[in-house]
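Section handout 9: paired folding examples.
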Amino acid sequence: MAQRKQRPSSKSHPSKRNPGASEALQGYYMDSLGFQAMDINVPGLSHVILQKLNMKNYEDYRSAVDGRKPATDFGIHTYFDMFQKMEDTFKFCVECKKLPASLPNPRSLRRCKRCQNVYYCSSECQRANWSGHKKFCKKLKLAAIDRLVEWLVFTGDIPFPVNPWTKHISEVRSWEEWFCMQEHLEQKLGSIMTGHYMSLLWSNAGKPKPDDGELLESIKRLTSDFLSRPLTIGFGLNAFHVDTCTGPITVHVVGASHIETLNTRISDYDELAQMFPGNQGIEVVMVGPEVTDGPIMRPPLAAFGPRGKVYLSSFKGLYHDFWETLVESQQAARPNLVVGFHPGFHASQGLTEGWFPTLLLLRDYKIPSLFTMYNEQELRYSLQILMELETNITAHGINPFASLKLEQVQSNPNKQPVYSNSHYIMFYGLSGEDEGLNLGELEEKEDKDDDEA
C-alpha cells in the first residue's frame, strides 16, 4: 500500500474493542442466510424442507443441528421415506419456480430425463428453460448421483481404508496422484460397489441406477469431498514448512459450523496422520459459534497428545474468546496453523465486521493462516478485505485438494456449480511498507472466464 494508515490492533482484548460484536453474532447463523436466499429464488422452499424434516420452524432446525432434537423426531421410518423426502426438497419448476402445492395438479411435475435432477411443471416451461439448462445438464446429472451416493459416507463405506503416504506431500499435487498412490484401489472401490448399502440405496432411491462407471466416479468424487479438509490442512502445514516430526502440531479450524462438526467422528481427520508418517501427534480444534455437540465436543489438549495420531476436539464460541479464555491461559496450545473453510466474511458487511477481531488477531500474532473459497470471485473479494487489513498474503490460488464433488445451488440449479475448498489464501503477519498485491491480473482473468461462461 502506498500510504500507511494507522493499523487497528487485536492484542489488547480484541472482543472488548467491539463490545456489541459477540452479542450480535450469537444469534446469527450462516445457514439462516441460506434459508433467506432460498426463499428469494423459490418462495416457500425453506418451509418445504422444514416440513419434510417434521419441523415447524427455523428454531426446530437449529435444535436438530445443535443435537437437541433426536433423529426419531424427523418422521423418517424407512429408507424409501428418507430418499423420497430428500428428493421432495428439489421438486419445483425450475422455470416458473412453482412448488407442487401451487400447481393445479401437484403431481404434474416431471423430471428432466437427462440429468434426473431438475423438474418442470409443463412442456412449455421445459422448452423455455432449455437454453439455460443445457449448459449445466451434464454436471447436474453428476450432482444428482452424488447426492444419493453421499449416503455411503454416513454408513461408513466412504472413504475406503487408506495406508500411510508413500510420497512426500510436495510430490502429490492432485487427486489423480493421490488415487494412484492407493494400494489395491480397484478392490477397495469394488467392495463399495458390491456392498450391502449400495444395493440398499438403489433399491429405495426411486431413480434409475447409474452404470458402474458412473458410480465408480461418484465414489471417487465423494472420497475427495470427505478428505478435502484434512488434505487442505496438510497442504497448509507443508506450505508454511511446519515440521510434524520434531514435535506435536496444533491446528485451529476457525468459523467451524455444523458443516465441519455435525456427525463428525473422532477418526474423520486420520488422513493427516497418513500424510505425515512419523508425526509426533496432530491436534485439530474446531472453533466456532455454530459448532454442534457430538463425539469431538471435548476439551483441547493442554499437553502432548498421542504420537502418530490425530486428536479432534471442539469449542463452541467465537475464536477471539477461545483465544483469551484457553490459549492465553495455556489451557490450549497455540496453533501452528489456523484454517478457515469457507469463512464467508466477503459475503456481507455484517459478516466482515464480525470476522475483524479474528482476522486482526491472526495478523498481529503472526499465526500462519489458510482460508478457502468456493470460486475465484470469492477469492478476489476476500483478498481485497485482507489487503485492507494490511495482512501479508503469502500465497493464493487453486487448491490442489479441492473437492471434486459439484455443489449445485438447490434453489437455482441452472447456475454455475462450485467445488468446496476450490481456492485458497495463505497469509502471515503484517504486510511490508512497500508490499501489496496487484489484483489486476486476477480481475482480468475473471472477466475472461465470465465472457467464456
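Moving on to protein 2 of 2.
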Amino acid sequence: MNAPQPAHRSTAAVVVQSLMWLWLIGLSVLVALGYQAMNDQADQDRLDSRLQRLEAQATGLAEAVEAIQQRPAVATAADLKDTRQILEARAAQVEKSLSGYAAADDLQALRAEVEQIKTRQTAARAARAPSKPAAKSEPPPFPFRIVSAELRAGQRSVSVAPSGGDFTPDQLQVLLPGDAVGPWRLQTVEGSTAVFQAGAQIRRVAIP
C-alpha cells in the first residue's frame, strides 16, 4: 500500500520545479520589459528635452527677425548678411540635434520655417532700401525776354517781349512788381536783375 508514494513524490517535485521555472522565466520577462520601458522613457525624455530646445531656438529665431524688422533704416547690407548667416547657423544646429529623433516631416517643417524667415528678412531689407530721389521738375520755360528797364511811378519796371525772333512795338509789355506773364510773376527789380517766380521756382534774369 505504501510503495507508490515515491513515484507520487517525484511527480510532485517535477511539477513544483516546472512551476518555479515558469515563474522565474515570467519574472525575467517582466524585468526585461520594465528595463526596456525605462530605456524608452529615457529616450522620450531626451526627445522632449530636445524638442523644448527646438521651441526655444525657434522662438529666438522669431525674436531675431522681429529685431531686424525694428532696426533703423541705416542698417547696411553687411549687417543683414551677418544676421542671415546667424539664423542659418542656428537652423543647422537645430536640424543636426534632431536628426536622430525628429521625423522627416518635422525637418521639412523646420526648413520651411527657415525659408520663411529668409523671405521676411529679404522683404525687410527691400523695405529699408533707400528710394531714388524724385527727379526735380524742370521750371517752365520763359515765354518772354527782358528788353529794357525803366522807372515808372517811382517803381522800377521792365519791358518784355516774346522770347524768340523779332518783335513789334505792340508786342512789348511793361511789368511792375506783382505783374505776371503766363506763370511767371515779377517779384522785384534789384539793380540790373529782375526776379521772377512761378510756384516754387525762382529765377533771376539779367536786364540788358
